[in-house]
Amino acid sequence: MSLDLARRSQPTVPATEMRLYAMDAWVADAAALVDRARLRNALRDAARLGHVDVVGEAFHDFPNGGVTGVLVLAQSHLSIHTWPELRFANVDLLSYGSVDGHVVLETLAERIGCVRTKITVVERELG
Amino acid sequence: MSLDLARRSQPTVPATEMRLYAMDAWVADAAALVDRARLRNALRDAARLGHVDVVGEAFHDFPNGGVTGVLVLAQSHLSIHTWPELRFANVDLLSYGSVDGHVVLETLAERIGCVRTKITVVERELG
Predict the structure, then answer these.
(1) Which of A68, A74, A122 sits opposite B77 (nearest CB)?
(2) Number of helices and strands in chain B (H, E)
(3) What is the DSSP string of A11-29?
(4) Rounded distance, CA A122 to CA A89, Å?
(5) Least C-beta-crowded within 10 Å: which of A14, A25, A106, B126?
(6) Max alpha carbon distance in chain B (Å)?
(7) Nearest by CB to A70, which of B62, B77, B126?
(8) CA separation (Å) from A71 to B4, B14, B63?
(9) Cβ-contact A113, A39 below 8 angstroms
(10) CA distance linking residue B74 with residue B96, whole number of Å
């Protein structure tokens, strides 16, 4: 299957708009989903390339090998929850301003070896 | 304005379904949004009442008094980002299984003094 990031070319969001980018992602190799260091690097690289500023983080390893990783951002948060037994992950980015959410998701998808993604963008309120 | 949590009575989600609950929330008093300890307690109480298990957390204080708080859950994550200057907050809960997302959001809304909320539920993939 080809990588499906249909909205990747969407324009940058103005500073007054808040958006949630929800990505459900299927990967070729579950090894990408059980390696906390690799996931942390992937999240941080995705944040950097999407012009997101990281101000904190929290990670947790689950008994099945799955990992939850959350980066706290100056522009909200970026999270991943992995399901190695399903070769699957849920990714969420809440952001505003000059953040390019699709660059963040595309970078992360590439770094964990996605073969298919489903992205939902939710327009959020801001004040 | 009255509290608007229209979907609060929705049935519990089966273990095979993943959902994102996105809540945009307006509060009466900005003081609720700049107090990290109060927000942390509100998040943890909401998690407990919604049968969510907390396995980690990360918080960050911003120069404008705003706070970002993320709880890492056995069932994914619960986050809040506050905008005291707008008396406003964005809340996200990603969950599955026996979690009652609407109880989590309702509890949190009450604890931070919401006068209005807008909730969007996104059905997510899971494998």
Answers:
(1) A68
(2) 2, 6
(3) PPPPTT-EEEEEEEEEES-
(4) 19
(5) A14
(6) 42
(7) B77
(8) 30, 28, 19
(9) no
(10) 10
pLDDT 10s digits, A86-110 = 999 999 999 988 788 999 999 999 9
> In chain A, which residue ranges form alpha helices assigned H by DSSP?
36-49, 101-111
Helices A101-111 and A36-49: crossing angle, nearest 10°?
150
The rounded distance, in Å, linking the Cα atoms of A18 and A15 is 8
SS3 assignment, position A16: coil
Q: Which domains does chain B have, with CATH numbers?
A: 18-124 (3.60.90.10)
Q: Do B58 and A60 touch (CB under 8 A)?
A: no
Complex ipTM value: 0.87
Residue A49 has which token pair? Answer: 């390339």
| Residues in chain A, total | 127
Tokens describing residue A80: 């991943």
Measured distance CA(A105)–CA(B112) in Å, rounded = 32
Chain A residues within an 8 Å CB radius of B74: 62
Q: From the CA of A7, how many Å to the nearest CA of chain B?
A: 18
Summary mean pLDDT of chain A: 89
Is A45 an 8 Å CB contact of chain B?
A: no
Contact A77, A1 (CB under 8 A): no
Q: Does residue B72 sit at the A interface (CB-CB below 8 Å)?
A: yes
Contact A60 B83 (CB under 8 A): no
